[in-house]
Design a protein that fits this description.
Structural class: alpha/beta
Distance between the termini: 17 Å
Order of helices and strands: EEHEEEHEHEHEHEHEEEE
Number of strands: 13
Largest sheet: 9 strands, mixed
Strand order of the largest sheet: 1-13-11-5-7-9-10-4-12
Helix content: 10-25%
Shape: globular
Radius of gyration: 18 Å
Length: 232
């Protein structure tokens, strides 16, 4: 008999025109196209770049072979592990998730599952209602926010190949000041994917939840807004 989850958590921010965007992307726009009052049915017209809101970064986003419609479906329903780095982020906006964080997690919870998604809880998602605080740009326009270290990409690919996806509660897999996007470059071309702008990771246990990633099936897409659920 199939296991019925006791709880289903939505780890997705609602996509709105006000949601903070990485600065290279165009604003989200939406308008009512048809209304029940005038047309008998309701439809809205949306315009947004693929990397808006809570979204998936497909391998193709940084030179990998798989576009978002080609991600293996077995990698979209997968065990989640949550690495909590909030203590370090509290003292350093540019804190990096490093291999030692994974090793410390394993010391407490056992070896990473054979197939899993590694999610970093930085606490940054609490800022998402304030675009200035979320992007956190300084006077020179340099953003400051935590992210994954390039060393982690190599460690996971070489030492923990069962990690099929990573995700976190910030606007980018790389930390805010990055100009070379070294984690993206080191991770996505390996055929794994990423998830950005997650929320409610503090409600997900360190291990045992099943992550359901509703990645859009956009032909040759580099990614796209996605509904992300955790089954407990």
């Amino acid at each position: 008999m199939a296991r019925i989850p006791e709880r289903v958590l939505d780890l997705t921010h609602t996509l709105t025109p006000e949601f903070p965007l990485y600065p290279v992307y165009d604003p989200v726009t939406v308008r009512d196209k048809f209304s029940v009052a005038d047309d008998g049915f309701y439809v809205r017209s949306w315009t947004f770049d693929e990397h808006s809101g809570t979204h998936v970064d497909a391998p193709a986003h940084f030179g990998g072979d798989a576009a978002v419609d080609r991600i293996e479906v077995s990698d979209l329903v997968i065990e989640a592990v949550v690495v909590d780095v909030r203590d370090r982020v509290a003292n350093d906006d540019d804190a990096l998730v490093v291999p030692d964080d994974v090793l410390a997690w394993e010391s407490a919870h056992g070896r990473l599952p054979e197939r899993c998604a590694l999610l970093a809880l930085t606490g940054w998602g609490a800022r998402a209602g304030d675009a200035a605080a979320y992007l956190n740009a300084d006077a020179a326009g340099v953003m400051h926010a935590p992210g994954f270290s390039p060393e982690l990409a190599s460690f996971l690919a070489d030492e923990r190949p069962g990690v099929r996806a990573v995700g976190l509660d910030t606007a980018s897999l790389d930390f805010g000041p990055s100009t070379d996007f070294a984690f993206h470059v080191g991770w996505l071309p390996t055929g794994r994917y990423g998830i950005e702008n997650l929320t409610r990771l503090d409600d997900v246990p360190p291990r045992g939840a099943i992550l359901v990633v509703g990645a859009p099936k956009l032909q040759a897409g580099s990614g796209g807004p996605s509904r992300i659920l955790a089954l407990l």
